[in-house]
Specification:
CATH architecture: Alpha-Beta Complex
CATH superfamily: Spore Coat Polysaccharide Biosynthesis Protein SpsA, Chain A
Order of helices and strands: EHEHEHEHEEE
Number of helices: 4
Helix content: 25-40%
Structural class: alpha/beta
Number of domains: 1
Strand content: 15-25%
Length: 159
């Protein structure tokens, strides 16, 4: 099976600390994303210093920051339009992925002989700190249609 390319779309609004934690969890993945698109609906643009720091955390992964008016549907649609990957992973800025998550998502698509999977979602795992939660969001394949799409309730765990 061909290797899928992964585009991560992170929607954020006025939560730079949560965004930094989300990007840090991408850095620790076994399977690295091919690109990360941060769609920012904040009232003030992320400072250039912070954008540089976040780029440095991801090393060689291409990261793009795009400002837009707030609105989660608008942000996700814009991110999907800008994404180049064959699989688009949508994350909110308060998501902290467990190590191996992207590898599990890519494996679902790469092991699908009929290319019929239209979306995959992860399970919510509560964070031990009460003020934040870990949430893994749905994944969509470009060009899939509702009629031929199957979905899995969660990404299979990595053994």
């Amino acid at each position: 099976m061909p290797r899928e390319t992964l585009s991560i779309v992170i929607c954020t609004r006025n939560r730079p600390v949560a965004l930094a934690a989300c990007i840090e969890s991408l850095r620790t993945q076994i399977r690295r994303a091919d690109e990360v698109i941060v769609v920012d609906g904040s009232t003030a643009r992320l400072p250039a210093r912070m954008r540089r720091r976040l780029r440095k955390r991801l090393g060689g992964t291409r990261i793009r920051f795009v400002a837009t008016p707030p609105g989660l549907p608008r942000q996700r649609n814009l991110g999907a339009t800008l994404a180049h990957g064959s699989v688009v992973v949508f994350l909110d800025d308060d998501v902290v992925l467990e190590r191996g998550y992207l590898e599990a998502i890519a494996a679902v698509y790469e092991n699908d002989p009929y290319a019929a999977i239209g979306g995959v979602g992860g399970a919510q795992v509560p964070d031990p700190t009460p003020r934040e939660s870990r949430l893994r969001r749905a994944v969509c394949r470009h060009g899939s249609s509702q009629s031929n799409a199957r979905s899995w309730p969660y990404a299979p765990p990595i053994s």
